Amino acid sequence: MGHTSARQPHHPLWTRASHGLNLLVLIVMAASGLQIYNANPVFGGRGGATVPELLTLGGWLAGGRDWHFGFMGLYALNLGLWLALLIQRRRRRLGELGDLTALKTSASAPRRRLSAHRLVYTLMLIVLAFSLISGLAMYKPAQFWWLTSLFAFAEPLGVNSWQALRVSHLATIPAMVLLVVAHIVLSWRVGGLRLLRAMAL
Fold it and tell me: What pTM was estimated for this model as a whole?
């Protein structure tokens, strides 16, 4: 692991600042989203199970919406920046000779860990993009009716498209928590404390 970590470059200042901004925005969006959820739980209707107030932001429905939609523009701008970087810099790594192949065939354990680290980070961006798309469909269902209609796949199971949309949007929170944990663990295994510090300090 020492040999692998020695090869890790120190992240530029703008990258480290963006990591901190990403974390702040994600915390605000998740906490305010859970506040909105508490007003009308996805499961069980208005009398359904809610999340502890400690995990919410806004104090009430209107407050949660203010925080959520207030940060949505920053969330979308930041996500767009990272998706642009992904397309520009990582598309070859995901190709035939890139991370997917290395994860399957490489005999080097450090190489496989590095590939898994990059793929998890890419998957994080995909989940965040899905969260934004599903959030827009909930925010403006009349204007983005075609987005809402994509969730009609659940209707044969007796679940209407709006409920499927709400469940899918809520599911991005635990999905991101798991991916962030995986990202931190893999960062540690790839570059140890040096890489974790280089990402934020």
Answer: 0.79
- Per-residue pLDDT reduced to its tens digit, 120-131: 888 888 999 999
Distance CA 35, CA 22 (A): 20
pLDDT number for residue 201: 54
Check if the beta carbon of residue 35 is closer than 8 Å to that of residue 58.
Answer: yes
